[in-house]
Design brief:
Blueprint (H helix, E strand, L loop, with lengths): L3 H23 L7 H30 L4 H26 L8 H21 L11
């Protein structure tokens, strides 16, 4: 199977998203301030959306591989780690000083979307698409 590592990483991210969401809903209620709980839930939400987007890129890559798709996946993975990871760590440890990391993760996520746009623009159309633009 092509991209076994990316598929596995994406599946693990999906599992972690569900676990983190359940943890926030059940174990963290009443344990964190509203602000920290909201930060944790924001991390879960962004991780969920980017994990789903990674599945889409992997499906596209399975049928129409493009060199730039790996960059998209790498940027989103790093973005999830820094953005969501820093929000999880901040909420669970109370160390607000970790907040400076979060915007870097957001920039990586944005970079992944821009790289996806570039992939879509530079991908070679197949024969069925050649006359439809």
């Amino acid at each position: 199977m092509r991209d076994r590592g990316w598929w596995s990483l994406t599946a693990l991210s999906g599992a972690l998203t569900v676990m983190a969401g359940a943890f926030a809903a059940h174990a963290l209620q009443g344990q964190l301030t509203e602000r920290m709980l909201a930060a944790f839930e924001t991390g879960v939400r962004y991780q969920a959306w980017h994990t789903l987007a990674m599945l889409g890129v992997l499906a596209w890559r399975a049928s129409r591989p493009h060199r730039g798709q790996s960059l998209v996946l790498a940027l989103w993975t790093a973005g999830i780690a820094l953005f969501s990871g820093s929000l999880y760590a901040m909420a669970l440890t109370g160390l607000g000083g970790l907040g400076w990391i979060t915007p870097f993760g957001g920039v990586l996520m944005i970079g992944g979307w821009l790289a996806l746009a570039a992939c879509a623009l530079w991908a070679r159309p197949d024969q069925s698409e050649s006359g439809s633009t």
